[in-house]
Amino acid sequence: MSQATIEKGINAFKEQIDAPVAAFFSSCVSCGMCAEACLFYTETGDPKYTPIHKLEPLRRVWEQEYTLTGKIKKLFGLTEAVTDRMLSEWQELLYDSCTMCARCSMVCPVGNDIAYMVRKAREGMVASGNAPEGVRMASTRAVRIGSPMGVKLTSLQAQIRHIEADTGLTIPIDVEGAEYMALLSSMEIMNFPEYIGGLAKIFAHAGISWTLCSTAFEATNSGIQIGSSDIARELVQRVVDGAERLKVRAVISPECGHAYTAIRWEGPNLVGRRFTFKVIHILELLDQLRASGRIRTEGLERECMTFHDPCSLVRKGGVIESPRNLMNMVTENFVELEEHGKWGWCCGGGGGVSSNEEAAGLRHKAFRRKKEQLEASGADALVTACANCRLVMEEGFEGYRVEMPILGLTELVADHLVTEEGSGEPPEKR
Amino acid sequence: MANSKTLGESLRRHGVTRRGFLKFCSATASLMALPPTMVPAIAAALERAKRPSVIWLSFQECTGCTESLTRSHAPTVESLIFDHVSLDYHHTLQVASGEAAEAAREAAMHENQGGYLLVVDGSIPLADPGYSTIAGISNVDMLRETAAGAAAIIAVGTCAAFGGLPKADPNPTGAVPVSEIIRDKPIVNVSGCPPIPVVITGVLAHFLTFGALPELDRYGRPMVFYGQSIHDRCYRRPFYDKGLFAETFDDEGARKGWCLYKMGCKGPMTYNACATAKWNNGTGWPVEAGHGCLGCSEPDFWDAGGFYNALSIPTSDVTGTVVTGAVAGAALGAAAALLNRGTQGEAREKHATVTVDDLEKGV
């Protein structure tokens, strides 16, 4: 069994520093605007949570290895080496207090993509053994068992039996040549199985062939969260293999933010080639079906509802309009949060923070931002499209004693589908 | 000299119509960036205002400031207002002389104790009080004595405001501005060599209307007049933005009215209202006449380099330097990139694939 060492960590930093990183570090004007964009800073007021400061180890390696002044300083011993001790100190900054929500990247006046650099800095943290235990365990389970929460195929099959009994619909598994292969997040399987039921209803309604894959049902990618391309690649490869084995036209990313980042954006770069299938987020697909009239809904939710933008999906993924179109399709009183869309505030649990027990206290503090935002909106119910956000917010509500139901957008749409005589039969295509 | 007539009566006696008066009030309001709703308040206050007693002291100065204010062409409402303040003491303008003149000053000070306005032009010599005396009294003593009972002080002209020409290097008389001697009275610096007449009347109108002085900038100048640079308000600014400059006073650019920056115009560092208020009843102003701004309303403008030296300008062969620099930079950049690529490549070669077995530190 090999081990993580500081040398490996420094080497990973050196490997990760590319032209954008060099340009970003040389462009930073230390204006501190990223601090005000970060909920870990705004909710604690502690300047150590200033996003660019979280990158100090990476910046120092860049200066020492890639700049002339840094090399001279190093020669004369005027700059301190990055040590294992420094990295363990920075664990809190690079993991506990960063969800890679990229709000800081949005405000940076010189265009530095800070979240991109945090993702890269985590490579060095992993290689040097400085990733938090909770996140390491999640990655280990993801690779060994197939899911960060340890959900096995048998657990999924058990849930499927319940859902089939409830809905009277079949949940197809391993159907070769199906149009779509749906991925699921463990949280959906264990905490929000109504998502799977919703999918079944929608596809039956729209007359679309779909399938789950027994070897690649898990969408979440712990490798992206812990920040290891090697682990992320292995997990993405499983999905690619599964989709190619079943010869599907497209893979559907579920209501999970970073899963979309993993499969849609990082995926092809990780495996080093184009996918033979398309990747689409469930909300994008639903919005397409809505626009083409293939799904029809009836009735509107009366309650005042608002939408929480999952960062990976909306700000980083660009799926901004689809959730709004769908919200307006099924609710009559949809209100936006004051800062929404690409300016939305993170739930505080993305980027691996929710699987990191050490970060629980900080996460609770940071959640105050979301809580106050929701209270100010006057909404009665909250809709979102990310199982992780949903679970984090449910826990947050628990901690702050807020009573507000949280719904998944897909299941909400599924609840409003027009039911025709002989329900279960797909309606005629138009 | 001082009588109890109100300003309104005085103006009417001189044939200023009600309409003309209100026009002046509106102009004052807009000039001083006050809301239009203030116009009636200004009119009412000015109408009722007692003619304020003004004592004008002239120290080390050239009388240019007085000339600027009094020789400004046909009487306008603002000049009338200025004429009809109760100017109880002013070297250049008063009829009295000798002891009678000094007696007038003392009488005005006594009658209006704590309520008169003190206007000062000229700087005050501290090296030797003998450099400038009036009726045997040194400037600094007269200033201290007269300032003691003043409601406020208006330092007119750059000499009184910042020291001006007398203070220019090497400052043989040890000249200082009013603000370095008097520290316990509100002081408004109306700088300029000379200042614009309307600024004086604007400050007076503000004082009469609100009983207070207008908002001041960091040099004690009224923000409304000194809030923006000449450069930002200059009608030649579009040429600067396009990079079109006159190089000499008789070239094509000068004839076409291009920017005078390269000929030493100090507009970018000078804050004054010349570009908008203009001079000589709105006829024109220095830049419009074809000469760069001297920066006369800024502290130490005499010592700010030559009047015809541009604020900053490249002195060498720009194109050649840029080309050489670009070539050298590109070569250095390429070398650095190559070197850095080597560093990164080395790191890549050393990369050991991370598996879940490698996540923990060695003991």
CATH superfamily of the domain at 52-198 and 218-226 in chain B: NADH:ubiquinone oxidoreductase-like, 20kDa subunit
Low-confidence stretches of chain A: 421-430
Distance between the termini of chain A: 60 Å
What proportion strand of chain B?
A: 5-15%
- Report the count of strand segments of chain B: 9
> Which ranges of chain B are low-confidence, i.e. pLDDT below 50, for 5 or more consecutive residues?
none
In total, the number of strands of chain A is 8
Mean residue pLDDT of chain B: 86
Rg over C-alpha atoms of chain A, rounded to the nearest angstrom: 22 Å
Task: List the total number of helices of chain B.
Answer: 16
Cα-based radius of gyration of chain B, to the nearest Å: 29 Å
Identify the overall geometry of chain B. Answer: elongated
| Helix/sheet category of chain A | alpha/beta
Profile the largest sheet of chain A: 4 strands, parallel
What is the count of structural domains of chain A? 3
State the helicity of chain A in percent bands.
Answer: 40-55%
Q: State the CATH topology of the domain at 52-198 and 218-226 in chain B.
A: Rossmann fold
Give the largest interface pair and sizes: A-B, 32 and 20 residues
Cofactor (chain B): [3Fe-4S] cluster; [4Fe-4S] cluster
Domain Cytochrome-c3 hydrogenase C-terminal (chain B): 226-305
Keywords (chain B): 3Fe-4S, 4Fe-4S, Iron, Iron-sulfur, Metal-binding, Oxidoreductase, Signal
Catalytic activity (chain B): H2 + A = AH2
How would you sum up this structure, described in words?
The complex is a heterodimer of chains A (430) and B (363). Helix content of chain A is 52%, strand content 7%. Chain A contains 21 helices and 8 strands. In chain A, helix 5 (56-66) packs across helix 6 (68-75), helix 7 (84-96) packs across helix 9 (114-127) and helix 17 packs across helix 18. In chain A, the strands form 2 sheets. In chain A, strands 2-1-3-4 form a 4-stranded parallel sheet. A 4-stranded parallel sheet of chain A has the order 6-5-7-8, sandwiched between helices. Chain A folds into 3 domains: 6-131, Fumarate Reductase Iron-sulfur Protein, Chain B, domain 2, CATH 1.10.1060; 141-290, Rossmann fold (3-Layer(aba) Sandwich); 293-415, Rossmann fold. Helix content of chain B is 41%, strand content 10%. Among the domains of chain B are: 52-198 and 218-226, NADH:ubiquinone oxidoreductase-like, 20kDa subunit (Rossmann fold, 3-Layer(aba) Sandwich), CATH 3.40.50.700; 230-303, Cytochrome-c3 Hydrogenase, Chain A, domain 2 (Irregular). Chain B has helices at 7-13, 18-31, 38-48, 64-70, 77-83, 98-111, 139-148, 157-162, 164-167, 197-210, 223-226, 230-233, 237-242, 252-256, 274-277, 318-350; strands at residues 53-58, 86-89, 116-121, 124-125, 133-134, 137-138, 150-156, 175-176, 187-190. Chain A binds chain B through residues 1-5, 8, 11-12, 14-15, 17-18, 22, 65-66, 68, 84, 126-131, 136, 139-140, 143-144, 226, 228, 230-231, and chain B through 336, 340, 343-344, 346-348, 350-362. Chain A: GO terms for molecular function: 4 iron, 4 sulfur cluster binding; metal ion binding; oxidoreductase activity.
